[in-house]
Write a structure and sequence with these properties.
By secondary structure, the chain is α/β, with parallel strands linked by helices. The chain has 4 helices and 6 strands; from the N terminus they run E-H-E-H-E-H-E-H-E-E. Helix 1 packs across helix 2 (56-69).
């Protein structure tokens, strides 16, 4: 059985004149990912690997999530190919995962995340919001064989008091 937690990067700023990959998180984005991490902490699997896009906003989100969840941020593997908005590219990267790994925590971008969870989950989500957390579970034992799974849990900032 395989499980993946997909977390969309938190709200980022469009105010600075930088390339897309260099955009940083807003204060609201930082606040939201901390809230999501606190709520998600009790649902995290015991053994996992953490993957993140190399975009600054995704890497900041991953590091803040780890800090708030008391996970080792040094475990984050940054993968340039996860800087994608295409669910097919995201799927390709996920399916490359080592089969000895049962659980992935992945920080990435929309439209890739929303389209991926709708393709592979059993609950339609119109839009995974910034700092949104979606957990999917698959009956397959090989990442390359994953297909329709179950949407186990969602945690979205606006749902947290």
């Amino acid at each position: 059985m395989k499980s993946i937690i997909l977390i969309r990067h938190a709200k980022s700023s469009w105010n600075d004149p930088v390339i897309d990959k260099e955009r940083i998180l807003t204060d609201k984005g930082i606040e939201n990912i901390k809230k999501v991490a606190i709520k998600a902490k009790k649902y995290l699997p015991e053994n996992f690997i953490i993957l993140s896009s190399t975009a600054k906003r995704a890497s900041q989100t991953a590091q803040l999530f780890c800090k708030q969840s008391i996970l080792d941020k040094n475990q984050i593997e940054f993968i340039d190919n996860l800087y994608t908005f295409d669910e097919n590219q995201l799927e390709k990267e996920i399916k490359k995962s080592d089969n000895t790994v049962e659980n992935l925590i992945l920080f990435g971008h929309n439209e890739a995340i929303t389209n991926f969870v709708n393709k592979f989950g059993d609950k339609y989500i119109n839009n995974v919001p910034t700092a949104g957390f979606v957990q999917l579970q698959f009956d397959q034992n090989s990442w390359k064989d994953i297909n329709k799974g179950k949407t186990i849990r969602t945690i979205f900032p606006k749902e947290i008091d």
